[in-house]
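Input record (one chain):
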Amino acid sequence: MNKILLIITASITSLHVFSQQLITPSDIYKMKSVSDPQVSPDGKWVAYVLSTPDSTKDKSDSDIWMISWDGTESVRLTTSPDGENHPRWSPDGKYLTFLSSRYETKSSQIWKMDRRGGEAVKLTELKYSIGDYLWSPDSKKILLTIHDQESSDEADKKKTTKPIVIDRYHFKSDGDGYLERKRDHLYLFDVETKKLDTLTRGDFDEENPAWSPDSKKIVFASNRSADADRNNNSDLWMMETRKGAELKQLTQWKGSDSNPAFSPDGKQIAYLKSQLVEHSIYDQPQLAVISADGGEPKILNPALDRDVSSPRWSNDSQSVYTVVDDDRRSYVASFDLTGSKKAITTGDQIYHSLKRGTGNNWVAISSNATMPNEIFVIENGTARRLTHIHDDFLKLRTLASVEAFNSKGKDGTDVGSLLFRPFGKSKTEKLPLILWIHGGPTSQDDFGFDLAPQVFAAQGYAVACVNYRGSSGRGLAYSKAISGDWGNKEVIDLIGAVDHLIKTGVVDADRLAIGGWSYGGILTDYVTATDARFKAASSGAGSALQLSMYGSDQYTLQYENELGVPWKNMDKWMKVSYPFLNVEKIKTPTLYMVGEKDFNVPAVGGEQMYQALKSLGVPTEFIIYPNQHHGISVPSYQKDRLTRYLNWYGKYLGMPKLKEKLPEKK
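The corresponding structure, as predicted from the sequence alone:
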């Protein structure tokens, strides 16, 4: 009998393993995205946005869903093919509203749904698209953020688009294109009368507005200096919610003040305060509190050398909650008004999009190495998973294991990284390696779910994700270490991690590949110009002749702060351009990729390196994704990119070709 039971058990186990599949690029179409959770005023429901890829239309459709606080009921609220986003509950609990240009609407407007049921109806009928909105606490008015623009009616009447007139220092931005003097301003919409009042005007942007609890005032961040494009300044400003009201400046810091939030008792405002005056991507803001009447701010986390995000007040106005990024992880923490910190969540997990619920309850989005983003609720200090959006997908997939490791390069700096091990591979087997480099540089590889390394590992690669100097999560000094000295310390850290994995017997030293997107693509060129061991590389949205990027991309202020203007500091510009200037040292076959309309790292960065390698006879290809910006958003292009990575690496590392259909070459 025992023998029979063992045979049956083994058969069931084998059947389960056999029924599971390796994750592939085609799974792009099965990966859903959850965002923007919003708790109802009574605390019984959480509304959110769920985006689902549509392979037929080759785009993602976003809809509004809601789930009960106990997770027992889930309801899809919108079904139009046009997409809905920004769900917001009216504070009186009567309505759930959202933004959409659904049906015949030509611009993004607010739609409202009665809590008791029924079809959504259009609440606003403006000629201009609404960028964001915020209900007043008394539910009588809505604060709108609208970008200066032509109305949809005016645009329809024109046969020829007007010339773009540029006279700004900062004149282009990825996704927005060329920047004229069009700004984000605040407007007040009366829900009952539907009257629209203009609150702010001028050649300034207003950001992150927040209501006072009594609905009489708003606070927002704005750079109102003489030439806002040339500095990092933004201050907090307050005004009454009426047309023509005067502005009161609350903060005087020459750096950046942002993300204000009124305390529920209306007495104080929490916000993020930069540590550096000059514009710097390496800055690490601190959590600050200031009286609603103004005065000197108090820093709540002076001893915490880690990144924090948007502040949220507790219901009793005695503490401020935030998310802390810390060495491959992030967690929810609270700071009382004395600065005492308490970690609310723990573990190898990440959290973001923190929102307050009722009582001492919170909601956030979270993921870990083997679970894509899901909504979690936090009750009395304990996190509980609320949604199970990806369960059906995951139960049929085998995933790589993910483990932390630390290494040191030739200068002895301790570097924290993650290693993806293919499912089913013995730890004694030496594996081909993909060194997969994150962008930024000020971000971090963490224990959140990451599709690309999982897809790579499913094909038998070990994947190393390294938090080189310049990354966040390790403190301000660690991030600032590369300022004005790109491609030096990062390369030391990346090569040190590879050497560590070779020395410890994890990877095969003769089968190394490298790649990344954005700064990851830039570092790919730096590394292959330094180390000839890599058999294949992919550089996505990267650049190597940095001098040519001045005036071509959106980072002029950053360049001038770090390197100075090229005509006075040519030695620095030449130093950071060494991959192109030493291109003859690059022997690694390299695949270049870019979005056609990328203004973040324009196509010229990849074009130059592709042309150079082509002239030198080094194997190379150049892929341009039409009408795409820095982030590739079309699902078929996302699948195509992953497939090309694998086939390029496999060609030079002796791995099997992936059987995924690719577009024909032109």
